[in-house]
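Lab notebook page, bench 4
Experiment: in silico fold of construct C2
Operator: M.H.
Input chain length: 528 residues
Purpose: comparison with the prior construct
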Amino acid sequence: MEEEKINNKKRTILICSITVVAVILIVGISYAFWQLTKLQEDTNIISSGCFGVSLEGNEAINLTSAYPLKTEEGMKSTPYTFTITNTCSGSANYIVNLESLANTTFASSSIRVALDNTDKLYSEYEESNKYFEDSIEARTLISGTLQDNESVTYNLRMWIDESAPGTEQNKIFASKIVVTSGQEGAGIDPTIENLEATSTIDTINITYQANGDIGTTCKWGIEAGTYDNEIADATASNCTITGLSDNTTYYYQVCTKTGKGSKCEEGSASTKPNSTPFTSSDVGKYVTMTPTATSYTIPTSVTGYTSAQTINPSELNLWRVIKVNDDGTVEMVSDKVSSTLVYFSGSKGYKNFVGGLNTIAAQYTDGKHVLRTRHIGYSNQTETITDTSMLSEAPAPWTKTTLSGWTATSSGFTEAEEAQGAGDIGYTADYQLVNAVYGSMEANNPSGTVKSYWLASRRFDYIDSTYWLFNGRCVLTSGSLSNYNLYDYYSGFGENSGDYAVRPIVTLKSTAEKLSGSGTSSSPYILN
């Protein structure tokens, strides 16, 4: 009888005569013999008071003329049959490990091990603690519990897997069965930590850390608390539910068992919807996306207006695709403009004009699909002008000669040259995208009334040395491009207020996809 280990009130039983020795020789292209010579002769028994188990088996596996086999052939080979019996009163937990010994040179992925009808590569079984200090590895074949005088019989088969490469020549696979048993109440407390689940359209993968040395199980069902289905290949760290329906919630239970008992944790996860990505053919299509915010107040410190103004972003929930980018992100413009008109006024309104409109646009997000926002017409101008005298906004053809205003170094500038001098050329990108889809820049509010709206782009307009204007771009009810004077110098500074609606643009994340809908205004796409 082999030496005996007794730790933490557990009993380890070594079937000391199960040794598998594999030798492969290749002559030409043929495998030579795989000779297994160790025989099982005795019954190994360990007992302690009122608790004990016995193990009895027939002769060890003895193969000759062995060569790589297909699974169906290997399963027909003569097994090593052994029986584990609980010889005393009280339940007994047990774990059956197959341990590869120090002289093993075969790769564990080249040997297939079958216990009854379960067959895996040796490397696919869950790793376990080694009994022999100089062994290479130990893997758990099965675990269970025996009641008073109960027995269980297993059939063990091993063979060279058909996938074993030709490099597995002159190799040895030497192994022994090790059975570890213990009473209920002995060992460590069962724990399950870091339980999480991720999903695809038809699978849910559950991960965790379970310490059960008796075993871990995963079950699932379609109702909370009811788990009719068990996952066959659950390990101490993960299990996967397959063959599920898309866009459906499932419930799962993970249980782990040690000598002290069992512990279970529950959870739920939903499979992803069967959605499709956006493509360039979706340009012009309608999309439903409701912003989260139902109220946003724009302070006077931003607009320069006499009072704060409040808008409702969630009223704009119908959008239209104007561009699908190469990275999969999607540009969408609001189909309507806001019901509430937004005022910008004077030097403060002019300085904060672009940043103020972009801050308003940032409220038009749902927190799931939107990657970024901007106000229509944003041309990457400076969002906020910090120079109180606005000197940084001097158009390129002009130079400042006095504190009272700008003086042109030359005359006869066209409107296009004035616009370029103020850096106001980038707004046309959005303008062209929207106009290409709609055929017009005209837009209604949610009540169906045509309204003019802001473009996030400043314009400097030079009239003469005593008359120059600081404008905000806008689109009129006719759909034509225009400007509104927010701040002017005409024999002194003037303060003006412009009242226009807002029309944001949002960029969807590349992960946003179409769940349903046909993309028309009456049946817009619904996002996943």
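Observations: Confidence is low (pLDDT under 50) at residues 1-41, 43-51, 390-423. DSSP finds six helices and 38 strands in the chain.
Next step: discuss at group meeting.
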